[in-house]
Inverse folding.
């Protein structure tokens, strides 16, 4: 799917990067713990999180994540918005909670990575 | 790319918001140099985990990154409290991070395991009350 599909499925709103709405998304990861996210290395992925601080954008940057979705209506601050624009990371916000947001995307065919192995 | 270069960063103490700037800078430099994106990502993630650890567990520190045609070496030195039991610290899920760090999204005890996972070599030297040195290498191939 593409970023715009995620926006539609989640009834989400673009905070950053509407111009990148046609970028492909292949996998997803949902977590509030950034090192859990960093354990997962996949191309063209989307991060769903309820955590809202600059390290979320930094984490996305390190991982080459194409889109961050803030759940529970969280809104990034100005510094996060600036950072995301600079690194070309789209930001969406949705009112759905984590479980529902992940479920809705899963139902439409988006998948996570393989089971974690040490 | 035939020369070997070293880039140094000071990581400020107690500045959670700025933590990651050094890793971000290395990431864009490597990208500009045309290094393979998978390698850039491994270096960026490993260094970022180390940089965050310096800020949340120690009092900042210094990072030297040496880029040669064969490998990228990162040396992270801090003068924080040190690690008592390195084998224990390396276990996935082991963390001494307090609750306020957990609410910031860190403290899953996955940082060191990730650093091991994404590098070809990881060496930790630490002395209680003196500090910690983390040496990581990622091969260009
Ligand atoms: N530079 C350091 N100085 C002192 N102690 C450290 C340092 N780096 C790691 N540690 C110790 O090792 C433990 C495990 O580190 P690790 O990075 O794996 O997990 P974490 O930082 O607690 O959580 P996460 O990385 O998942 O956010 C830490 O909780 C801390 O006790
Ligand atoms: Mg850590």
């Amino acid at each position: 799917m593409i970023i715009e599909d995620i926006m539609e499925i989640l009834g989400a709103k673009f905070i950053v990067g509407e111009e990148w709405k046609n970028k492909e998304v292949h996998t997803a990861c949902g977590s509030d713990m950034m090192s859990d996210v960093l354990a997962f290395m996949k191309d063209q992925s989307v991060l769903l999180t309820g955590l809202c601080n600059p390290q979320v954008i930094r984490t996305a940057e390190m991982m080459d994540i194409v889109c961050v979705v803030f759940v529970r209506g969280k809104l990034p601050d100005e510094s996060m918005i600036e950072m995301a624009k600079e690194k070309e990371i789209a930001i969406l916000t949705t009112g759905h909670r984590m479980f529902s947001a992940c479920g809705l995307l899963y139902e439409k065919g988006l998948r996570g990575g393989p089971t974690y192995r040490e | 790319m035939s020369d070997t270069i070293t880039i140094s960063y000071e990581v400020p103490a107690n500045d959670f918001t700025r933590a990651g700037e050094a890793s971000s800078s290395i990431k864009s430099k490597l990208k500009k140099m045309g290094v393979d994106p998978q390698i850039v990502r491994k270096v960026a993630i490993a260094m970022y985990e180390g940089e965050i650890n310096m800020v949340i567990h120690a009092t900042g520190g210094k990072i030297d990154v040496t880029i040669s045609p064969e490998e990228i070496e990162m040396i992270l030195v801090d003068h924080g409290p040190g690690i008592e039991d390195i084998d224990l610290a390396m276990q996935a899920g082991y963390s001494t991070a307090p609750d306020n760090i957990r609410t910031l999204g860190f403290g899953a005890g996955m940082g060191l395991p990730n650093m091991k996972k994404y590098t070809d070599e990881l060496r930790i030297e630490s002395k209680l009350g003196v500090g910690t040195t983390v040496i990581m290498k990622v091969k260009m191939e």
